[in-house]
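TA notes. Do not distribute before section.
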Amino acid sequence: MTSKFLKILTGINRPSAPSSGSMILVNDLYSVMPGTHTTFLGREPVDATWAAAFGELAVLSTVKRPHGPDFESYVDELTTEVGELIEKVRPHALHAQYLGFALSQAFIRTAGDIPVISIAHGPDVMVAERSEWEREGLHEVAAASAAIVAPTSALADRIDRLTGRRFTDRLTVIPWGIRLADAHVRDRQTSGPGPLALVHAGRLDANKSPTTAVEALALTEQPHHLTVIGQGVLREHLEQRALELGVRDRVQFERFLPRAKLWRRLPQFDAFVGTTTGLEAFGLVLIEAQAHGLQVAYSDLPEAREILGDTGVPYTPGDPQSLAAALDDLGRDVDRREALTCAALNNARRYDINTTSRRLRELTLRVSRSGATS
């Protein structure tokens, strides 16, 4: 099945750089996909190192416009540009990243007889659950897709419900992965009972809810220390909240770190705190933390529970008191922390990017062959 050479066209309508989890994921994913030439559509500026993972990187020239009166004309222009590129590349398959977003709509409107595999990332599902307009876009892309990929069965079920369970047979769960070979477990032993060195990394926005971690710190019985790494609209609010709660001396704020630098930092901490309250498509950073030997306290959402289960410590989403109790329990129980470290490392080994890439390639081969014989 792996003998055929595949040409894939994909893309994300953002600057071509490792600026988010989705951008990092696709870079990892296609860089290790065997027997494949991937053309990636992105926007300027282009990070040359990041772009090197693809066979070719094409820069979109259509001016990006948000939802509003000009959105449909924008998608039409984008469709024309994508169509010209498809004629040039002649791919065997299109991978539409994000269900329903503008670039995915352009893909399916100009695909012709080229099969489309759409790949859900989370924000696409989240906006479709809030907006009828976004939901229509998701329906359009799902209906035109030969297969729909989700990283967890929980997210697949949300997509299934959003589309009225009309495309159940097209849904495929392919868990995401990380570059496990690049992860380095800390060499220091688990410390004794007492305060923990905690870390939170990610976007500082309402869905990621880092406020939960800051507020939990004010409720703990032990003086844990929290490092918040990332950028976002809540940065100033978080600093002010830490001051109001009297824990500013126990919270350190750092800017967004490229993954290589973040991974070098992770082994310096005892535990990772995941605080998402809405939708967590997969939670790559939770697996990254586990791969570095950290215990993980996670918001007990269906998607996170599916990938972590009892290898992490669940708490009630958005509830600082529940998180505070979980952190204090960890701080007191050294044996449990050691057991969780072992469980975390074993769990992380299930999520290798090479496995993700192989499974997506095999699905693409099946879809492209089916299209060729239909």
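Switch to the second chain here.
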Amino acid sequence: MLTASACDWQRNELRALIGPDQGLGDRELRKEINLLLQHPLTDPSPERRRLKEIIGHVRVGYLDRWARALKVEDDKRVKPERFSRTTAAHLLDLGFSASYLKGWARTLNRERVGAVEIAESAAELARTRPRPHEVLVALEKVPGRHELAEPLDHWRSKGGVVTWLRENGHDPSGIRTGGGFVYRLDALDPYGAAEQARQLLDRMVARSQYLRAHRGGVVPVPRIWVAGHPHPVPLSPPARGADVLSLVHEGHLYKVDSRRGRIDDALELAAAVNRGALAPAVAGGWAAVESLLVHADDPKGDGERSGKAIAADRMAAIIACSWPRAELTTLAHRHNPSEPDDLYRAVAASTTNREAARLVADALVAAGAEALVLTRATGYSDQAAAQRMVGLLASPRSQLNEVAKAFRVAMRRLYRTRNIILHGGATHGVALEASLRTAAPLLGAGLDRIVHASYTEDLDPLDLAARAEVALQLVHGETGLTTADLLEPVR
């Protein structure tokens, strides 16, 4: 399913990524992983079997090792943002839901705990084991209820649904239902149990599309209830963050007519990314990238810069070049001192986001992150963004290429996951959910810039990718190209 060159590329990238990962410890575990990654990991092979075994050792105690590392006061301490990303990714991979982790993080924030306490709390969380949850999925319409639904043990009649809700402390008033199902599901948290129930419901609705009569007739109530959880969970899952804001900001959301273009086709292909089932979302998301950023003249062969993988690199370059402007623009609007200062007045007087971004960049170069007075509601995340921009502006070319490299890994993983689904028929791969979780916001950012360039300049996506690739090499050089202008046309 994956070529040897694809596996080798991923293996070499992984060797670079694990360097600052304190969860791997300092001795035997890290040494063993580095030794294994020096060899091809073909399947089957002794190295592949050993890697599979050692992953179990990495997972157990991973956050405990982070906590121990954070207690050591030396120059090896990692940046808080790296620690937070790594911790969140590990807990998500263990099976905790994002909604539950947000609540956990808010509690820690209210308690004003430090990094060590956060790591210890996360390590304790990681030791949690799944427990059974009782979940109610109610249906408004139930085709074939008498012969197909009522014989099932977990079916509840309309009266049974009302009784279950009351027994579990929920108000059944206003709920119109023809019955429902009560599932007993093992999960780490109530939101995870609701997500499992949501997936069961999706399968049920998909099956109903194949009925001859009442096609697509299964209609769910737009909420899910979990016993012991005080509030119903919305049926619609949280969006995965693939936002194309240019459609709104530039007034193109409703400007559709009989003419179809590549942009329209790509947006339709990627529509499942935000809330669709995992496999169709991955397949559609990558199809959108491929439809825009692949050309018949691209290099052939099995090298990593050949074939369709080159589209991932092109999208990564576009995203990397869009990132500084997006961060700087957000910071410009978040700078909010109690008494308006020169920067505040200059930003208020600016007529374009480009101008506002340049003003913030100049302020950060002159005075560092302290130049900004950020709003209280988003202060922590904005402060991290300001620190990122200070580092970027101090060394634009190296920082941008590091960022582009990280984006390239994410987009290529999306591509490889899609290949495993469509060519290998493996619809439940271990990297499926993580690949989409990482790639969805990046895909949205890339599509946003492609849409913007198409509507404002009539610029082909391949030409935008070429502009981005050139910008990554010329930024902060003799041409005077600045970080706020990476995707702007040469004037």
